[in-house]
């Protein structure tokens, strides 16, 4: 399917690895020029070079911590005029509801709520003025069903979800859509870290922890960054203009819901 977005420009934050990279790769395959960022230089430059070479698009890497205002300003300067925004950042650490301090909550709110909101506030006016735009926020299945050890994620991401629910309906009339993608378990570094935590807590090996977790997923496996990215690229396509303010689970059926 021709996604109809070749030649457009996108900003994908936190995109040197994992789900962000999956989204950047699928957009590049659709002919979209990219600005991508991450804190570490090596993986970011490698990803930018690989995507540019494989897909013949322009990929600008910006070394930046997207949760810091001054870094974000540099990323936004490189991405001026972008019609597509995919927001992403690292997830908060696991723990227990009783452990977290005010500072822990503020860090999680900064990374997983206020940063995507700031990126939208910066790029939405231009999209509205041009009459076309797409925003996809990478959130989490924890928005639909809380994950015990990820209370910081449960909290910050539902705040973002509330912002998107209201804002998506205010900008839809200008040809701009905002939607959220909710990953369940995907085979990325983040999943390895979570499996290591589970293995440590249960006194078992990491492979055993991964196998046990995969067995709880109806699809019987972890998702891939590539299939996640393909859904993101579809939401950014010309075909998805009537999908507004939705929260789309990509979790292999893990979240046990009727609707
Ligand atoms: P990942 O494999 O650890 O990759 C994270 C990417 O984001 C890396 O490129 C990392 O590069 C970059 N990054 C992290 N923090 C950043 C920051 N502050 N500024 C700029 N770049 C940053 O993670 P993932 O699995 O793709 O997860 C992406 C998001 O989805 C996370 O918020 C995660 O909590 C959420 N999620 C993931 C899963 C899953 O199963 N994988 C499930 C539910 C939710 P640098 O480290 O070099 O900055």
TrEMBL record:
Belongs to the short-chain dehydrogenases/reductases (SDR) family. It holds the Pfam family adh_short_C2. The gene is fabG_2. Gene3D superfamilies: NAD(P)-binding Rossmann-like Domain. SUPFAM superfamilies: NAD(P)-binding Rossmann-fold domains. It is an enzyme of class 1 (oxidoreductase). It comes from the Bacteria. Its EC number is 1.1.1.100. Keywords: Oxidoreductase. InterPro entries: NAD(P)-bd_dom_sf (IPR036291), SDR (IPR050259), SDR_fam (IPR002347). GO terms for molecular function: 3-oxoacyl-[acyl-carrier-protein] reductase (NADPH) activity. The keyword Ribonucleoprotein does not apply. The keyword Oxidoreductase applies. This is 3-oxoacyl-[acyl-carrier-protein] reductase FabG.
